[in-house]
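User: Here's a chain of 337 residues. Predict its fold as tokens.
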Amino acid sequence: MAAQFIGQVMLCERACPINWVATNWFVSQITQTTTTPPMQVTKTAQLTGHNAAIFALIAGTDEQHVLTGAGDGWVVLWDLAAPDLGKLLAKVEVQVFSLCLLKNVQKIVAGNMDGGVHWIDLNDPTATKNIAHHQRGVYDIRAVGDHVFSAGGDGKLSRWSIAEMRPTESYQLANQALRCIDYCEMRQELAVGGSDGAIYFLDATTLELRHTIRPAHGSSVFSLRYSPDGKKLLSGGRDAHLKVWELSDDFKQISSQPAHWFTINSIVFSPDGRHFATGSRDKTIKIWNAENFELEKVLEGGRDGGHFNSVNKVLWLPIGLVSCSDDRTAMLWKVKK
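Assistant: Prediction complete.
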């Protein structure tokens, strides 16, 4: 059943087409690691209603709600306990690439494919502020304290004041697009992945560049995730490789494997930190052991009722694993370990 959308905020901007480039890479045959008892994963809900690919997926105000942003320009709130009902919070005429929820001030920051940043006020939609900032797409947005950081297709990392809803400084970090950001509170550090294949590590307060891994991947770095203990960083690239970096040992690479057939778009740890999931352009979701980095489960379209197009984001909440795709759907998975 398609979702019924409630409420609508119109934010008009120009639209332009998106071009996805597929890169073919040879991937070694990977078999699932058998555990006792085996991990059981069941799809419990499918969220439908978007009219285009879903690019952004973040947690809502609690573990029962999620937010999605898509190529139709819609920002939608979903109740995972009642997935047939989606609430349309805002609409722009440009594809939404990234989202960030600011719970304390009841705002959503959305980045679009043209480089625009939308500050959506949940209490007063008429007060929504739209700023044309990056020269190209805003691929990721991350909140840190009183600021948010945006990663732009122009290679700039920008810091924004939440109180003033404006950029306070921009750092030309690379000559190619910045694709992803993660933040480690324990290290007070930002990790930024670029289309130049590099991973940049910056002090989250001063924006001083602490370290650069170059090249980290053979092509664009699409996903980054710090381990819950802050000791490791996981990275996924357009080269389909999953890599693990030991941060305390001079950023040493301790694992590298051809984890998917195509781009690894997203990495997320389970709430207990014992597993992590990856979502890929090869249409699959894979679940891995976080201790030894071995594969434990593969979720695919035909066998598991999974996605039939690129998996763009994965989000792991206490209620379950959530995924979204180019196939215009989001799915909720119950994981029993």
